């Protein structure tokens, strides 16, 4: 017989408020007396874990089917098990290592010309500077020279949209994919209509990678092209 | 429940929501027909709402260091499509109330409401075309392609839900429900805004499929919490009729749990009720279903699943955006998994 006059209660599951509802709860020690709170806690954890497990199986299956469908379209051999940037990007932005890149780029160029032409006929549509729908053969791309100061090998690509005016262009700082490195500053000088010089200074120790920035018209800030630098 | 730091969610939603609405209203014509179309197109956006979807798009882009200007038109398009779908959803669900006021079809008739929804969804293409001025034609075209995909996924998800209801499908499991929510809710609410913010912010440098897991877990937690608020929320704050989902026969996680745990006689009674047209489901039917859900712990079950999914969203957030520099926008994204399950 218990000689103590006092009731003995089971220790509380917690002694403070739950600040982070997503933090894992401590499980009862093996051999500890079970109580209703522990049973309820186990049921809660069961619902939570089962729910997450089911959700992961649903999304993994969904992504797998999407990859299979994309693989059938693009014959991409870089299938991935886990998410990674090494995966090709079928249907995504221009990727020179994408086997569809050439025909995709042709299609994109054709679509670009189509949208520029279409917008010239629509009242109130955004005006595409310098483009005339009556001069299909008259689109002229400015001549571009590039001056680079760099201690590492670099590859520079200047993509000026065909309808861009060559008056007063500027380049945004070129940022690395993922924004993990110091941006590269670029200057654009328009020497005369139809002739542009791009100057870049790649500092010593600039991390290898691809850096990109938009080229804009200084006057109205509309996008005139894109500048890409690959540092080896 | 409270977070251990000052959450930026409310201030970010307010700032980006105001910017989105301001530009959205500029796209609405002030010409005729106003009474039957253009004034009505402004109705749902004017009723408020958290502008969660466009804010997610803008904040994601800004977390990469991109100016808001580059993501704003895409955000406006997302908000237009969202409101268009709300108008149509209310017709399909025969809902009577939206954000504390009569639904559009209740006030104006089904035909006019459908036309307004059609117009808003097509108008959503205009800001995407205007993206050419700030993003260039290639990225603008990419965003258009992504928007088409989102619309298709959303329609597929809605088709599941409507089909289950029409054919009184009652053997829907948890995996079926999550797949439906992935398509119907997550693509528009969380996956697409994350993908667009990432596309714009990284200038196409990141694989957008990496956003799908984060968007799915965040959106699924969001939807389950929405369904819980329909049963358990504050009527004034919630803005729709409480227990409306039960009357509608909506296949929620709570209903699926009840169907899986009820006795055979209770299941038969529930199936019989679901097979009746909505107008023949009585207040007594609704009360009985709600009482059985309480008895079997269906709401608590769904609440725990939502918590688990929010935790998974936190994990996927870290995998996806953990490398980005600290900023208010990154803090906003990090706070969302807890916010979606705490909101009322």
Notes on the structure:
The complex is a heterodimer of chains A (232) and B (344). With 232 residues, chain A is of the alpha+beta class. Among the domains of chain A are: 34-80; 140-231. Chain A contains 2 helices and 8 strands. Chain A has helices at residues 36-74, 101-121, and strands at 143-150, 154-160, 169-171, 175-176, 186-192, 195-202, 209-217, 223-231. In chain A, strand 7 and strand 8 (223-231) form a beta hairpin. The radius of gyration of chain A is 30 Å and the shape is elongated. Mean pLDDT of chain A is 65; it is low at 27-34, 76-108 and 112-139. Chain B has 344 residues and is an all-alpha fold. Chain B has a single domain, classed as Farnesyl Diphosphate Synthase, CATH 1.10.600.10. Helix content of chain B is 76%, strand content 1%. Chain B contains 19 helices and 2 strands. Chain B has helices at residues 9-26, 34-41, 43-46, 52-63, 69-93, 104-108, 110-123, 125-130, 132-135, 137-166, 174-202, 210-232, 235-238, 244-248, 253-261, 264-275, 283-296, 298-321, 328-342, and strands at 97-98, 101-102. The longest helix of chain B is centred in the middle third of the chain and has 30 residues, at 137-166. Classes of the chains: A alpha+beta (232), B mainly alpha (344). Chains A and B meet through helix 1, helix 2, strand 4, strand 7 and strand 8 of A and helix 9, helix 10, helix 11, helix 12 and helix 18 of B.
Gist?
The complex is a heterodimer of chains A (232) and B (344). With 232 residues, chain A is of the alpha+beta class. Chain A has helices at residues 36-74, 101-121, and strands at residues 143-150, 154-160, 169-171, 175-176, 186-192, 195-202, 209-217, 223-231.
**Residue runs with pLDDT of under 50 for 5 or more positions of chain A:** 27-34, 76-108, 112-139
Within CATH, the superfamily of chain B carries the name: Farnesyl Diphosphate Synthase
Helix/sheet category of chain B: mainly alpha
Q: Estimate the helix proportion of chain B, in percent.
A: over 70%
Termini separation of chain B: 12 Å
Shape of chain B: globular
CATH hierarchy, class of chain B: Mainly Alpha
Q: How many DSSP helices of chain B?
A: 19
Q: Mind describing the biggest β-sheet of chain A?
A: 5 strands, antiparallel
Distance between the termini of chain A: 83 Å
What is the CATH architecture descriptor of chain B? Answer: Orthogonal Bundle
Globally, the shape of chain A reads: elongated
Rg of chain A (CA only): 30 Å
**N to C succession of SSEs of chain A:** HHEEEEEEEE
Largest interface: which pair? A-B, 53 and 58 residues
Topology of chain B as a string of helices (H) and strands (E) = HHHHHEEHHHHHHHHHHHHHH
Beta-strand content estimate of chain A? 15-25%
Largest sheet, spatial ordering of strands of chain B: 1-2
Percentage of residues in strands of chain B: under 5%
SS field, number of helical segments of chain A: 2
Biggest sheet layout of chain B: 2 strands, antiparallel
């Amino acid at each position: 017989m218990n000689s103590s006059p006092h009731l003995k209660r089971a220790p509380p599951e917690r002694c403070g408020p739950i600040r982070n509802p997503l933090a894992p709860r401590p499980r009862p020690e093996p051999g500890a007396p079970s109580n209703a709170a522990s049973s309820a806690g186990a049921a809660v954890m069961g619902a939570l874990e089962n729910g997450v497990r089911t959700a992961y199986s649903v999304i993994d299956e969904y992504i797998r089917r999407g990859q299979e469908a994309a693989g059938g379209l693009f014959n991409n051999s870089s299938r991935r098990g886990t998410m990674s940037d090494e995966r090709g990007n079928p249907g995504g932005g221009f990727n020179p290592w994408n086997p569809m890149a050439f025909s995709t780029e042709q299609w994109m160029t054709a679509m670009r010309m189509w949208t520029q032409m279409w917008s010239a006929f629509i009242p109130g549509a955004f005006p595409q500077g310098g483009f005339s729908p009556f001069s299909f053969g008259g689109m002229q791309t400015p001549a571009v020279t590039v001056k680079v100061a760099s201690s590492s090998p670099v590859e520079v690509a200047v993509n000026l949209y065909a309808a861009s005016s060559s008056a007063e262009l500027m380049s945004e700082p070129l940022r690395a994919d993922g924004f993990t490195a110091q941006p590269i500053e670029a200057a654009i000088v328009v020497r005369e209509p139809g002739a542009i010089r791009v100057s870049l200074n790649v500092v010593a120790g600039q991390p290898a990678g691809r850096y990109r920035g938009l080229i804009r018209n200084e006057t109205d800030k509309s996008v005139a092209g894109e500048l890409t630098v690959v540092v080896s | 429940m409270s977070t251990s730091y000052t959450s930026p969610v409310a201030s970010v939603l307010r700032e980006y929501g105001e910017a989105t609405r301001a530009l959205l209203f500029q796209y609405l014509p002030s010409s005729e027909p106003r009474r039957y179309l253009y004034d009505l197109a402004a109705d749902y956006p004017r009723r408020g709402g958290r502008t969660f979807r466009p804010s997610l798009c803008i904040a994601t882009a800004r977390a990469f260091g991109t100016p808001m200007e580059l993501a704003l038109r895409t955000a406006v398009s997302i908000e237009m499509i969202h409101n268009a779908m709300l108008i149509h959803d209310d017709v399909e669900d025969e809902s009577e109330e939206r954000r504390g006021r009569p639904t559009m079809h209740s006030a104006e008739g089904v035909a006019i409401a459908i036309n307004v929804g059609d117009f808003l969804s097509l108008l959503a293409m205009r800001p995407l075309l205007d993206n050419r001025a700030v993003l260039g034609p290639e990225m603008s075209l990419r965003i258009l392609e992504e928007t088409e995909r989102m619309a298709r996924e959303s329609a597929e998800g809605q088709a599941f839900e409507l089909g289950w209801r029409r054919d009184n499908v009652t053997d829907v499991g948890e995996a079926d429900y999550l797949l439906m929510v992935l398509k119907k809710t997550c693509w528009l609410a969380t996956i697409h805004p994350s993908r667009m913010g990432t596309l714009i912010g990284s200038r196409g440098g990141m694989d957008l499929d990496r956003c799908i897991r984060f968007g799915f877990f965040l959106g699924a937690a969001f939807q389950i919490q929405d369904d819980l608020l329909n049963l358990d929320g504050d009527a004034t704050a919630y803005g729709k009729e409480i227990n409306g989902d039960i009357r509608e026969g909506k296949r929620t996680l709570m209903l699926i749990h009840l169907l899986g745990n009820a006795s055979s006689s209770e299941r038969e009674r529930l199936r019989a009720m679901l097979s009746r047209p909505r107008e023949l489901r009585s207040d007594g039917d609704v009360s009985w279903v709600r009482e059985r859900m309480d008895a079997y712990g269906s709401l608590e079950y769904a609440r725990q699943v939502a918590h688990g999914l929010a935790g998974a969203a936190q994990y996927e957030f870290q995998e996806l955006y953990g490398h980005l520099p600290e900023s208010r926008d990154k803090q906003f994204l990090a706070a969302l998994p807890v916010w979606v399950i705490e909101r009322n």
